């Protein structure tokens, strides 16, 4: 499939998915409140002039850093998107879809659900059943009476980040499938 067509499908389905996960499309206000202003996510496209097999080599950090959005949601939380999606195109025809979500709006489980719902919407844009999401609103956890807590701006400290990478041989994956 043509990369332009793939990008259009992924970008449109991301927009549809964000309409369900509406806090993800907002921006932080005072670094503590999500302003649901529908500003959207960042959608980044990257061309990598090497085969995808090079990125699977354990010690190729330069390519790995190109594949994953680097610190974008945390560089300045009040002005940046809370979700960043990146599509990386390799010269061999391979494609990697990666995403970062600020922990101000979602944890790992909600990020996983968002990613899966985006994938479903990409494959089936006219699907009639949409996920039913529940957000904890201020009626359950009201804000402090004197306004939001003032906290410092989000900063990214790469030294404090934990990064895990798992690679599997194709034959090992095939052994798992029947189970």
TrEMBL record:
Stored InterPro entries: CAT-like_dom_sf (IPR023213)
Keywords on record: Acyltransferase, Transferase
Descriptive protein name: Acylsugar acyltransferase 3
Family as reported in the entry's similarity comment: Belongs to the plant acyltransferase family.
PANTHER family noted in UniProt: ACYLSUGAR ACYLTRANSFERASE 3-LIKE, F21J9.9
One Pfam match: Transferase
Gene name linked to the record: ASAT3_5
Superkingdom: Eukaryota
Gene Ontology molecular function, alphabetical: acyltransferase activity
